């Protein structure tokens, strides 16, 4: 019996040593960070400016990780300061080149700027580049705001 115990320990030891020397048992090299998570596409609500019978919204966009975005359309829901839906609008924000910060502005006809409490990015209606749909575009969008009205998704 005593010999059987020694024999079993020898098998475990040699089996472990044998596996450690095979290429399949070597640890895989870690994947580069760029391959595991794409950089965010930042969208900042920077300014709401009263116009004659409209509210002009200024958005600052940045796409540091690319690719170039040739078509970007968002479905936005405007809420009052009391969080009641004011209206729904669609805005086109392209082009958005890789590595560049850009400012896009649009007028919201008939909207009083003081009646905008927050803006929901309800849906990404389009997000394409030269090679087709941009992977994880909606997930990559990171909204922020510099005004009292919050931009969120």
Automatic annotation (TrEMBL):
**What phylogenetic lineage does the species belong to?**
Bacteria, Pseudomonadati, Pseudomonadota, Alphaproteobacteria, Acetobacterales
Q: Does the keyword Signal apply?
A: yes
The record's keywords, sorted A to Z, are:
Signal
What is this protein identified as?
Tat pathway signal sequence domain protein
Q: Name the domain of life.
A: Bacteria
Q: Which organism is it from?
A: Oleomonas cavernae
Residues of the signal peptide: 1-20
